[in-house]
C-alpha cells in the first residue's frame, strides 16, 4: 500500500462543518418534520416504509452538493440549483424530482431547510414542486460550503465488486443510486502516508475485529490475516460482515473518515453475523467520540442495544440522539430523544420483543 499526494478532496478548511439539522415539509412520506443532529452519534429508528432511507439520502445529498460546490469554480445560484437537483435525482432515483413531493390534496411543493454548525454561510433552503422534472429553487442561497466530503454506506457492500465498479457506474445506466458511485470513488483514494494521532487506535481496533488488515493490490481488495503462514484472501471470499469492517478501516486509512467527517450508514446490520454486531457498534461509538458525525438508520433492536451498551459502558457515556419514526393514521411522526428509551416504541422493535417472548414460552 503506497502513500498518496494530496488530492482535490483534501482541500478542507479549518472550519470543516457538520450537519446541524434539516427541516422538511411535504417530502415523500413526511408532511412536516425536523431533525436536530448531534455532532456525534445519531440513530434513525423505524419500521419499513417510514422514510429512514429517504431522510438519510436527502441530508446526504445536501451535504454532498455543498462539498462538491466548494470544489467547483462556478458557484452561482444557478449552478447550486442545478447541482442540488442532479444530486437528489441520482441519489433518490425518482422518475422526476416532483415525485419526491408528498401527494396531498392542495399541496404541491416540498420545502427543505438544511442547516450546518459552521460555517454559518453553508446553510441553505430550497423547494421544488410536484411538476418539477429537474428543477429546484433556492430560497436562501449559501455563501460558503462544507469542507468535509460526506461518506454514505448503502445496504449492499462494494469492496468485493470494487474492481472496475466505479468505471462501469460512470459509463452505464444501471439500477444503482449514486451513493454507490460516491462510495467507490471515496475508496479509490489510496492510503495516507501518516494517520492523525487519534486515528491510529480506531484503525487498530477495526483490524483487531478483522484479525488482519485490508489492502489493495492491482485494483482489488484483499484481507491480509494476522495468523502466521496465512496468505492474503480475496475480498469476495471474506464474510460480508468482515468486509463491512474492512471498508471502515480503509476509509480511516485513506482519510475518507477522520475528525469532522460525516458518515451516513443505511442499515449496517444487514447480512451481519450477530457476533460482529458488538464490535461494529463499539467502532461506531468510538468514531463519534473521535469527531466523526455518525448518522445511521436501523430497525434492528439488537443493533440499538449494542450501541447503547457501547456508549454507556464508557466512564463518561457518549452522547447520542435517537429519532423514532412511526406512523399515525396516514402521517409519519418523528420523536427525538437522547436514548433509545426516550423515544416512542417502534412497531418493528416491539415485534422482535414479542417474538422473543413467544420463543421463551416454548421452553
Describe the structure.
α7 (274-289) packs across α8 (301-312). This protein has 2 domains: 16-150 and 261-363, P-loop containing nucleotide triphosphate hydrolases (Rossmann fold); 157-258, no CATH class. It has helices at residues 52-71, 77-92, 165-171, 178-188, 199-210, 240-253, 274-289, 301-312, 347-362; strands at 19-27, 30-36, 41-46, 109-116, 124-129, 137-140, 151-153, 212-217, 220-225, 233-234, 262-266, 293-298, 320-328, 331-337. The strands form 3 sheets. Strands 7-11-12-3-13-14 form a 6-stranded mixed beta sheet, sandwiched between helices. The chain has a 5-stranded antiparallel beta sheet with strand order 2-1-4-5-6, with helices on one face. β5 (124-129) and β6 form a beta hairpin. It is built from 9 helices and 14 strands. It is globular.
CATH superfamily grouping of the largest domain:
P-loop containing nucleotide triphosphate hydrolases
Provide the CATH top-level class of the largest domain.
Alpha Beta
- What is the CATH third-level topology name of the largest domain? Rossmann fold
Tally of separate domains: 2
Biggest sheet: strand arrangement: 7-11-12-3-13-14
What is the structural class?
Answer: alpha/beta
**Which range best describes the helical content: under 10%, 10-25%, 25-40%, 40-55%, 55-70% or over 70%?**
25-40%
Query: What is the CA-atom radius of gyration, in angstroms?
Result: 20 Å
Uncertain runs are: 1-15
Mean pLDDT: 87
